[in-house]
TrEMBL record:
The lineage of its organism: Bacteria, Pseudomonadati, Pseudomonadota, Alphaproteobacteria, Rhodobacterales. GO terms for molecular function: ATP binding; ATP hydrolysis activity. Residues 2-230 form the ABC transporter domain. Pfam families: ABC_tran. The keyword Nucleotide-binding applies. It comes from Sulfitobacter mediterraneus. This is Thiamine ABC transporter ATP-binding protein. Keywords: ATP-binding, Cell inner membrane, Cell membrane, Membrane, Nucleotide-binding, Translocase, Transport. The keyword Translocase applies. It comes from the Bacteria. InterPro entries: AAA+_ATPase, ABC_SmlMolc_Importer, ABC_transporter-like_ATP-bd, ABC_transporter-like_CS, P-loop_NTPase.
Length: 230
């Protein structure tokens, strides 16, 4: 369980308050207007953005001061963060060892993850030789090898067409179900929320609200969410 306790996050003139609990095995969509602070919230959870006050507790332990690499989470960005000069296999291997000196067992893990996302036959290619969907799969394989209990996605598939995006969302849902990880995903698309999320964290007016069950919330949105959804 990840507990964000009375957190205040400040970035220049912008500030965001958050007080919420995220449970293992649940899938959360983070939604809200542009500029409301969704990416900032994920950045604070990951440790890229410092807290001004409050705490982040993982299984009861304060991780607010921990470096991003020490935290129990892995983050997937929209641009997938693949290195163009490395092969797909090496890009995934980076998830295990930044110096890429992988043991035999680690190599096997990388190949397993590539198989799991359907890229076993593409492991020796460079990212530029892959389609957009395949690049997303490669980035997902890197998330998978890290096997962290929390997977954070910041609008990961916004650049993909609707069919491919749905395919990727379903794959993400399968992968987190297999590993028991919690998923925390920023999205602008209500259909993504309905497809994948159990709970919704609504971010607006300087606050990240406590999670609420997704289906009920989307069927009957309160005024601020209704205004955002249009
Ligand atoms: N490094 C920074 N320094 C100062 N202000 C920043 C910085 N990064 C973001 N901000 C500001 O913080 C606010 C929240 O930005 P953030 O990217 O978290 O919003 P968002 O909800 O993810 O938006 P979008 O949906 O458009 O991606 C914005 O007003 C933004 O201008």
């Amino acid at each position: 369980m990840l507990r964000v306790e009375q957190a205040k996050i400040a970035l220049g003139d912008f500030s965001l308050a958050a007080d919420l609990v995220l449970e293992q095995g649940q899938r959360y969509a983070v939604i809200g207007p542009s500029g409301a602070g969704k990416s900032t919230l994920l950045g604070a959870l990951c440790g890229f953005v410092p807290l001004q006050s409050g705490q982040i507790l993982w299984q009861g332990r304060d991780i607010s001061q921990d470096d991003p690499g020490q935290r129990p989470m892995t983050m997937l960005f929209q641009d997938n963060n693949l290195f163009p000069h490395l092969t797909v296999q090496q890009n995934v291997g980076l998830g295990l060892r930044p110096d890429l000196r992988l043991s035999g067992a680690e190599q096997a893990k990388v190949l397993d993850a590539l198989r799991r996302v359907g890229l076993a036959d593409h492991s020796a290619k460079r990212p530029a030789a892959l389609s957009g969907g395949q690049q997303s799969r490669a980035a997902l394989a890197r998330v998978l090898v890290q096997a962290r209990p929390l997977v954070l996605l910041d609008e990961p598939f916004a650049a993909l067409g609707p069919a491919l995006r749905n395919e990727m969302l379903d794959l993400v849902a399968e992968l987190v179900a297999e590993t028991g990880a919690a998923l925390i995903m920023v999205t602008h698309a209500p259909e993504d929320v309905r497809r994948i999320a159990d709970q919704v964290v609504f971010v607006a007016e300087g606050r990240a609200e406590a999670p609420q069950p997704a289906a009920a919330l989307m069927d009957n949105p309160p005024p601020a969410l209704r205004a955002y959804l249009g």
